[in-house]
Design a protein that fits this description.
about 260 residues; alpha/beta; two-stranded antiparallel ribbon; 9 helices
């Protein structure tokens, strides 16, 4: 396939024969450029089990549903999709396939994967950067409750390997607003000790720390050219995905004009 040359394209991909016939610059597109190879990475640590409202999905279920929806769209356009479920390291991996029946394999893997006490996002991203066979799309679905320095280093490693990276940052509404009022026993899902506290005394400090955390995530993604999508579990999934897909399509269209 061919498309018109735009500033920034590699000159080695110019088709000189087409230039001779048409007097216009076109670049060749190879299979790896025209078909996406997408690795969907879903955080299976215990913090993903959290939900503040029994009528909403847990963060883990929301992340898995987002990954499944994206897999359905990609397979529908004959792109290759793989899956990585991780906690401290890669716990389960499903290799790439373009076969429509691959959707069942992905769904079974997402449904059967169990959460574990802790996570190491940076380690997982470094492992993927070293083992994924060639450049492609890597989608990380996580609440990012880990050391931010390590996570950003992993994202940089993937970008250094020329992968396109998207972060679906999955959070619960209560984590954003901290609406608790009465004396509350806060239980850590990843091995931290329970804490009995008056949430009204903690709210200001908590929200300030959360604000710093979200800012660091967004700035880190921006600095490393990682697409950032915040997903709140009480938000209809189609709203978050539609906005992301529209932005992605617009950017790709502008790049190829």
């Amino acid at each position: 396939e061919h498309r018109e040359y735009v500033p920034g394209d590699e000159i080695r991909h110019l088709d000189w024969k087409v230039l001779g016939r048409t007097d216009r610059l076109y670049v060749k597109q190879y299979e790896e450029e025209t078909n996406v190879r997408a690795m969907l990475c879903v955080d299976m640590s215990k913090s993903m089990d959290y939900r503040s409202n029994p009528e909403t999905l847990t963060k883990g279920d929301y992340a898995a549903t987002a990954a499944a929806a994206l897999a359905h769209l990609l397979l529908g356009q004959r792109d290759a999709v793989g899956l990585t479920c991780f906690d401290r390291a890669v716990a389960r991996q499903v290799p790439y396939s373009t076969n429509p029946s691959h959707m069942r394999v992905l769904l079974e893997a997402l449904a059967s994967s169990e959460t574990r006490p802790a996570t190491d996002i940076g380690r997982t991203l470094h492992e993927l950067a070293e083992t994924l066979p060639r450049r492609g799309l890597v989608v990380l679905c996580s609440d990012l409750f880990d050391t931010m320095e390590s996570t950003l280093a992993g994202l940089r490693h993937l970008r250094h390997r020329d992968h396109e990276v998207v972060l679906f940052h999955v959070l619960d509404r209560a984590e954003l607003e901290f609406p608790f009022q009465a004396l509350t026993l806060f239980e850590g899902l990843e091995a931290s000790l329970p804490l009995l506290a008056d949430p009204r005394a903690l709210r200001t400090a908590y929200l300030e720390e959360l604000g710093r955390f979200r800012t660091e995530v967004k700035q880190g993604c921006s600095a490393n050219q990682v697409d950032y999508v915040e997903m709140i579990t009480d938000q209809p999934l189609e709203v978050a995905l539609t906005g992301f897909l529209a932005t992605r399509a617009s950017r790709r269209g502008a790049r190829h004009r």
